[in-house]
Amino acid sequence: MPAIIYTDNWHLFTGSRHMPSPGNREPGIARRTVSATKRPFDIDEAMSRIREAVRPFPPAALFQLAEEGFDSPFEVLVACMISIRTFDEVTVPTARRFFSRARTARDVAHLTPAEINQLILTTTFHEPKARQIHAIARRLAADYDGELPCDERLLRSLPGVGPKCANLVLGIACGIPRIAVDVHVHRVTNRWGYVRTRTPEQTMTALEEKLPKRYWVEINRLLVPFGKHVCAGRAPRCSVCVVLDMCQQVGVTTHR
């Protein structure tokens, strides 16, 4: 049986603003029938469609903060550490509050771990994060003139910094193409069937081998809001998905 796609972004499928006749669609919702056989996954087409589809939603937290001017390597790193196991809706105001008090490594080094903890109290694991942020700031102030170099090896040597945060710093603040894989990027790309991996680390390696480099930074910016609002972990909204005709829906047992 053919699949039915309901979407407010009809032009993303057809390349046209022309809508089906009113008799063939529900009010305010475009409907398109596609073959039950999926077309080959076209990453260029997928990224173009998703770029338009997520415009109504806030970008991923670190990209949003960078657009607000918190875009130095140290600020992106601190914001990323704040974001770990924390919703974007909490990360963004918490990071703003923190940066209203201290924005540079030297400024943060003058705070105590207890003061940092109070500033990020709304986040998950705030106490260990506070200690790690303080230790990083002190090291940068002592050894690097208060600046965080765009150096992957150094980033990965800092306490609490894993590949995701290191790559986000390099990609957002340093302009160095790196793929940052979080739960959304991991889930969505596997659900598409674009990669077949078990862990975010495996997904990062697979994407580095397959994803065109021009999308290495952008994929996190796009798939975080896409994964939150459309391709959700439970009951994804396949009925409004702009890449349903290409997505293999791997592991999807129920959807909206």
Explain what the structure shows.
Helix 4 (73-83) packs across helix 5. The protein has helices at residues 10-14, 43-53, 61-67, 73-83, 88-101, 105-109, 113-119, 126-143, 152-157, 163-173, 183-192, 200-210, 218-229; strands at 3-7, 30-34. Mean pLDDT is 88; it is low at 1-35. The chain has a domain at 61-173: Hypothetical protein, domain 2 (Endonuclease III, domain 1, Orthogonal Bundle). Strands 1-2 form a two-stranded antiparallel ribbon. The protein is built from 13 helices and 2 strands. With 256 residues, it is mainly α. It comes from Thermalbibacter longus.
Strand content is under 5%
Helix and strand sequence: EHEHHHHHHHHHHHH
Query: What is the overall pLDDT average?
Result: 88
The SS-based structural class is mainly alpha
CATH class of the domain at 61-173: Mainly Alpha
Largest beta-sheet details: 2 strands, antiparallel
Number of helices: 13
Relevant terms:
256 residues; mainly alpha; Endonuclease III, domain 1; two-stranded antiparallel sheet; 13 helices; 4% strand
